[in-house]
Structures are given as structure tokens and as C-alpha cells.
């Protein structure tokens, strides 16, 4: 059930009573957008987000009649040096959550060996230029990050499309909190990520953010200044974006409409 719809500057924000309802609504929006893009362009170039926060979206998305054979799938980030066989890899997450369940036109992974990072950046940047992204799925981190643009490395005017970043401790601890790694020490320290300037260039975005662990980040993103101290605050300047919340993640940003 929809409990609140607000427009914060240019951003449509939808709050639902449960994670399941949030995911279903986001998936309905996504399916409509993907089908429209395919009808207009003949194919859709999409960046997917890999995190447990996206599970409700993926489960619901698979119930829709989408011609996945016309979808090119891209990643927004990946740990450097992690192999395709490691369960914690984001490519592997997407494979299990979506790619193995449908037939895609193409899937472009971000896996790279530590010694070949620059070559991977050049290759992937070339793909992003060849197939301009139509739609990006996003989450918001506990530190307010978008993709792996943590506050210390976030740049709204980044000259690059894809870059190497060092992950901050809040981000790395979130990976433990999410159950992706058993300890902070086992979380990789560096990753590849799409930049904020690239994310801003994508014409359409769907951001899905459940749970109370994200409540402060969402409040900062929607009620605080637009600043790289909370990279997700940039969402307010994206006219083609929609943010989907559950009651728990919205509780600090919209306390008047989320009290049961």
C-alpha cells in the first residue's frame, strides 16, 4: 500500500508500507519503462544494482512480461580482484538474482584482475559509449553512497565514467551487515564504480531503498543540503528518477506519514 508520495525538488519519492509492496511498485514502474524503451529503440541498455536491498525489486520484476532478449545488462560497480566464482561478487549476485532466470541480449560484467584494472576501465568505458545507458537501477548506502561513490571519493563533476575507488569503513561494514562477508577484514578495500557524473547523465533512474538502516541516509539525501557528504542527495536533481522506500527507510524523512 502506498503511504506517501512526495516530490522533492525534481525527484518523485514513493513510500510503501512493506518491502514487498515497495518492490512490486518499483518493478511495475521498471517494466513499463523498459518496455517503452525497447519499443522506441529496439533494445534497452540497463545498469543493474547488486545488493540485498534490490531483492524485492528483482523478485517482482521477474513476474512481468519483459522481452529480456532485447536488454543489454551492465553493472554499476564491482570489487577489484574478486573472481567470477566468488559468491560475494556483484556479478555473481546479479547472475543468481536475475541473469540466470532470463535470456538477455548481452551481459557485461565488471570482473577484473588487479593487474588489469586500467584495461578493464578502457574496455567498459568503450561499451558505455557504444551503448548509451537508458535506465539505471540504484540503491543508497548507509553512508549515502550511490554505487561505490562513498563520500570521501564522491565527485558530482567527475571527468571519468568509471573509476577506481577506495571503500570507506562505513561502506565496508555495510557489506558485513548485509551478510555478504563474514568480517570487515574479508571485505575488499578497492572497487570499480560508475561515477556520479555518469549516473547523472543517464536519462532514467529507479532507486530502491528499504530498511531502517538506511533511514538516516535517506533523510540526509532528501532533507539535507545537496553535497558529496551524502552523494545520494544528487537524486533530487534527476528529473527522470523515482525513489522507492518502505516505511522503515522513510521514517526519518517522512515521520508524519510513516507512523503506524
Textual characterization of the structure:
The protein is of the alpha/beta class and 260 residues long. The chain has a single domain, classed as 3-Layer(aba) Sandwich (Rossmann fold). It is 32% helix and 21% strand. The protein contains 9 helices and 11 strands. It has helices spanning 19-41, 55-61, 90-97, 117-130, 169-177, 196-201, 215-223, 247-250, 255-258, and strands spanning 2-8, 11-16, 44-48, 71-75, 77-79, 106-108, 135-138, 162-166, 190-194, 204-209, 241-246. The strands form 2 sheets. An 8-stranded mixed beta sheet has the order 1-2-11-10-7-3-4-6. Strand 1 (2-8) and strand 2 (11-16) form a beta hairpin. Helix 1 (19-41) packs across helix 2 (55-61). The radius of gyration is 17 Å and the shape is globular.
Number of E-state strands: 11
Q: End-to-end distance, in Å?
A: 13 Å
Backbone structural class: alpha/beta
Regarding quaternary structure, what we see is: single chain
Strand order across the largest sheet:
1-2-11-10-7-3-4-6
Unreliable parts: none
Radius of gyration: 17 Å
Number of domains: 1
| CATH class term | Alpha Beta
Q: Which architecture would the CATH scheme give at its second level?
A: 3-Layer(aba) Sandwich
Please provide the ordered H/E string of secondary-structure elements. EEHEHEEHEHEEHEHEHEHH
Number of helices: 9
Overall mean pLDDT: 95
List keywords for this structure.
single chain; 260 residues; alpha/beta; Rossmann fold; eight-stranded mixed beta sheet
Amino acid at each position: 500500500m502506498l503511504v506517501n508520495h512526495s516530490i522533492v525538488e525534481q525527484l518523485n519519492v514513493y513510500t510503501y508500507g512493506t518491502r514487498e509492496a515497495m518492490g512490486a511498485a518499483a518493478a511495475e514502474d521498471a517494466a513499463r519503462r523498459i518496455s517503452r524503451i525497447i519499443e522506441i529503440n529496439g533494445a534497452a541498455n540497463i545498469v543493474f544494482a547488486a545488493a540485498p536491498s534490490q531483492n524485492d525489486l528483482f523478485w517482482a520484476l521477474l513476474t512481468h512480461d519483459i522481452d529480456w532478449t532485447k536488454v543489454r545488462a551492465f553493472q554499476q560497480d564491482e570489487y577489484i580482484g574478486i573472481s567470477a566464482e566468488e559468491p560475494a561478487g556483484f556479478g555473481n549476485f546479479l547472475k543468481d538474482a536475475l541473469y540466470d532466470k532470463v535470456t538477455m541480449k548481452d551481459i557485461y560484467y565488471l570482473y577484473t584482475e588487479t593487474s588489469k584494472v586500467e584495461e578493464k576501465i578502457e574496455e567498459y568505458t568503450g561499451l558505455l559509449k557504444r551503448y548509451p545507458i537508458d535506465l539505471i537501477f540504484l540503491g543508497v548506502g548507509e553512508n549515502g553512497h550511490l554505487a561505490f561513490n562513498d563520500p570521501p571519493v564522491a565527485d558530482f563533476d567527475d571527468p571519468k565514467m568509471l573509476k577506481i575507488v577506495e571503500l570507506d569503513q562505513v561502506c565496508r561494514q555495510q557489506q558485513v551487515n548485509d551478510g555478504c562477508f563474514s568480517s570487515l577484514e574479508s571485505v575488499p578495500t578497492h572497487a570499480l564504480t560508475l561515477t556520479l557524473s555518469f549516473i547523472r547523465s543517464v536519462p532514467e533512474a529507479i532507486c530502491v531503498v528499504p530498511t531502517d538502516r538506511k533511514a538516516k541516509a535517506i533523510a540526509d539525501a532528501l532533507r539535507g543540503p545537496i553535497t558529496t557528504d551524502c552523494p545520494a542527495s544528487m537524486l533530487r536533481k534527476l528529473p527522470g528518477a523515482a525513489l522507492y522506500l518502505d516505511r522503515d527507510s522513510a521514517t526519518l524523512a517522512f515521520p508524519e506519514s510513516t507512523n503506524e
